[in-house]
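Input record, target 12 of the design panel.
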């Protein structure tokens, strides 16, 4: 009778264990499916966000020049007015007035560039040459000016806070090339070639007697002493 009870208990334990495994397997499948669905939703949301940021970035890049263009428009208006006065046959402005108007237009352009952190590179004479912001297009030799300095400016350069937009074109002063004759000492330059030609080196005489040399010994005789 006891073995029947033991067998029944074993069968009940096996059924309970199988039900437990089935339940956990079903929960694992449900959790895995839920996790995949959440990951897919997050991936879709992330992709949509990335696409939206890309579109916004493209729109910002396309409109990045608008503030600079708006700041340049007043200067262009001033130039258009100056050209209109030049084309007008009955103009009453004097050349000095036109020059002042052009000066104001140029200053407004510089102000517009300065509002966008763009400054002009205007080196003066005597300033040291910097290859990072200067471009040497001509060289000159001026002994009155230090070598490696700027002598004249041909075209202005421009830069912002991070990089050089255009280097300034300048003329650089270099040291004059010295010839070999001028590089000699004064004593050697004043020496005449005739005096150097008269001074001929005296070589020792070959026929002078050599006292320290010993005379060669007599060769041994061929006779043999038989005594």
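The sequence produced for target 12 reads:
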């Amino acid at each position: 009778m006891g073995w029947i009870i033991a067998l029944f208990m074993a069968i009940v334990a096996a059924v309970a264990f199988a039900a437990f495994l089935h339940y956990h397997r079903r929960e694992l499948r449900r959790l895995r499916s839920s996790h995949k669905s959440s990951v897919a939703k997050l991936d879709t949301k992330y992709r949509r966000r990335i696409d939206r940021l890309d579109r916004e970035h493209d729109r910002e890049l396309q409109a990045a020049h608008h503030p600079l263009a708006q700041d340049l428009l007043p200067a262009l208006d001033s130039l258009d007015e100056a050209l209109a006065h030049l084309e007008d046959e009955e103009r009453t402005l004097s050349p000095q007035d036109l020059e002042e108007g052009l000066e104001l237009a140029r200053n407004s352009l510089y102000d517009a560039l300065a509002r966008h952190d763009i400054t002009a590179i205007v080196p003066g004479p005597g300033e040291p040459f910097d290859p990072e912001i200067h471009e040497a297009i001509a060289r000159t030799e001026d002994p009155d000016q230090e070598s490696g300095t700027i002598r004249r400016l041909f075209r202005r350069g421009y830069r912002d806070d991070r990089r050089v937009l255009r280097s300034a074109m300048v003329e650089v002063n270099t040291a004059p090339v010295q010839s070999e004759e001028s590089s000699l000492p004064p004593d050697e330059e004043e020496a005449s070639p005739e005096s150097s030609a008269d001074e001929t080196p005296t070589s020792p005489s070959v026929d002078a007697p050599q006292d320290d040399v010993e005379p060669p010994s007599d060769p041994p005789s061929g006779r043999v002493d038989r005594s």
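Helices lie at 2-62, 66-87, 95-115, 186-190, 193-198.
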